[in-house]
Amino acid sequence: MTRLEHFAVQQIIAIAYQLDGSLRYQRVKSFFYDLLENDNYPYKRWFDLFMIFIILTSVFILVIEVKEPVPLWLDHYDLYFVTSIFITEYLLRMWVYSDIHKMLIQKHEEAQYLDHPLRLRALVGMAFTDKWAYISSPSAIIDLIAILPSYRQIRILRILVLFRAFKMLRYARSLSSFLFILKSKKFELITLLTLTAFFVFIAGIMLYVFEGDGDNPDIHNLFEAFYWALVTISTVGYGDISPVTPEGRVVSMLIILTGVGLIAFMTSIIVSSFSERLVELREGRVMQEVGKKSNVVVLCGFGTMGRKIAQGLQHEGVELIILDNSEDNAHEAHVMGYRSICTDATQAATFQQMRVAERVSHVLCLTPDDEQNAFIAINVKSLAPKVPVTVRCSDREVAAKLRFAGIDHVVIPEEITAMMGVVHAGEPVAFEALRSIVTQKTHSRIDEIKVQTGDALNNRNLGELSALTSRLIILGIVRPNTAGSKDFLFNPDNQVRLQAGDDLVILGHETAVSHFKHKVSV
C-alpha cells in the first residue's frame, strides 16, 4: 500500500467515525428518512401530497405542449423547479438507503482485528456495491428516468415524463397496496399468464392453419392470427377479424370458453387477495389516525364488559380504539362503528406504533384472561409509565401483585357484583335509584372534573362556585395524599378550597353537568 493510499484510507475512516459520533448528523438523517420512508411520521403525508402535486403538474405541462407552446414561466417551473425537486429527492433517498459510515467502521475494525491492511479499493467497492443495490432497484430506476425529460435538448425524451406518473406509486398508498397485492399473488398470476400465452399460441396457430391460406381475407400472417386469439380470449372481441370456416369457428368457441374461465380465475385471485389485505389496510389507516390524535383511550378486549364500557365512552365523546386478538371481536367492533385492530396487545410493537406515551390518555385491560391483562399492563407501563392503566382481574393474588407493580387501578368485577348484590338485597329502592343514575335512564349522571393548574377551578373554594353549582350536587372531592394514594372527601364544606390534582365529583342533570363543564373550561 502506498503512502498516499494509506493517508486516504485513514481520512475516510476518520470521517466515518466523526459521522458516527455526530448527533446532529444522525438527527438530520433520521428526519429525512422519516420524511421519505416512515409512513407513521406525521409530516410524511404532507410531503407525499406535495410530491403528487409536483408530478401531476409536470404531466399536465406535457399535455399542454401537445397542441400549443407553454408559457415561459411554466417551462422554467418544469425545467428548473420540478427537476431540482426530483434530483434532490433521488439523492436523499440514496443517502438514507443505508449507513455507509457504519460499514466502513465495521470493515476497519475487522481489518484491525485480523491485522490485515485496509485497501482503498475495498472501501470504495463496498460503498459502490451498497449504493448500486439502491440505484438498480425498480423504484430508483423510475426516479432516475423521471428526471431525464427535463433535459429538453432531445425532444423525444419528453415522452419519458410519463414515468413521473409511476413515481406516484411511492406516495399514493392505495396504488402501493394494489402492487403489494399483485406481488403477493405472483405465483398465481404467473401461472395464469403462462396458461393464457399457451392458449393464445395454440389458438393462433390453429386459426392460421385453417384460414391463413386465403380462406379468410383478414388474416395475412401469423401475427394477425395471434392478435385475433388474444382479443378473443380476453372476451373483448373487436370484430375486425372473424373466422369464416367451420374449423375456425370451433376454435373461436373453444377459446371464448377458455377466456371466460381464465378471467374468472384471475378475478378470484384478485378478490381473495384484496379480502386478505383489506383488513390490514383498514387497521393501518386506524393506526395512522390514532397517531394524529391525542388523549386516546385504548380498550383491550371487546368482550361483554368491553362492549358496555365502549358504549359508555362513545356516549361521552371519548376518542377510543379497541384492540383484540380475536378477528371476530375486532370485526364486530368495526361493524359497531368503533376503531378496532385485530392484534396481540401484549406485544410492545403495537403500543410503540401508536405512540402510547404521547397520544394515549388511558389504557383499559379488559380481556377475560388475568395473565394476558397483566402482560398488557406491564407492557404499557414499561413504555409509558405516566399513562394510567386500569386492569380487570379475577384473582386477588394477581391483583395484589399488579398493585405492587405500580398499576394504577385494579378492578375485581366479582367483588363489585357482590357489593351491588348486598345493596340490592338490603336497599332495593336505593339500588334502583343508583342504577338509574349510572345508566342515565333519568338523564342524570355522575361526572368528574379534573382540576388543573391555572384553570378556572384551581385555588377556588366551593362557595365561590355556588352560582354555577346551584343545579348540581357535589358528591365529593378525590384528592391525592402524601402516601401516594387518594382520599375521598364526601360532601365537602363550602370553605374547602380546590387545588391542582383534585377530581371534583358532581351529580346532576346532563344539561346542567355539560353547562358547568363548559363554564369552568372557558
Question: Would you mind describing this structure in some detail?
Answer:
With 522 residues, the protein is of the alpha/beta class. The chain has four domains: 3-171, no CATH class; 186-277, Helix Hairpins (Orthogonal Bundle); 293-416, 3-Layer(aba) Sandwich (Rossmann fold); 445-521, Alpha-Beta Plaits (2-Layer Sandwich). It contains 21 helices and ten strands. It has helices spanning 3-20, 23-37, 44-65, 72-96, 100-114, 120-135, 138-147, 163-171, 173-184, 186-211, 222-233, 246-291, 304-315, 327-335, 348-353, 356-359, 370-383, 396-404, 413-426, 428-438, 510-521, and strands at residues 296-300, 320-324, 339-342, 360-365, 389-392, 409-411, 444-450, 473-480, 486-490, 503-509. The strands form two sheets. The chain has a six-stranded parallel β-sheet, sandwiched between helices. Strand 5, helix 18 and strand 6 form a beta-alpha-beta unit. It is extended and about 105 Å long.
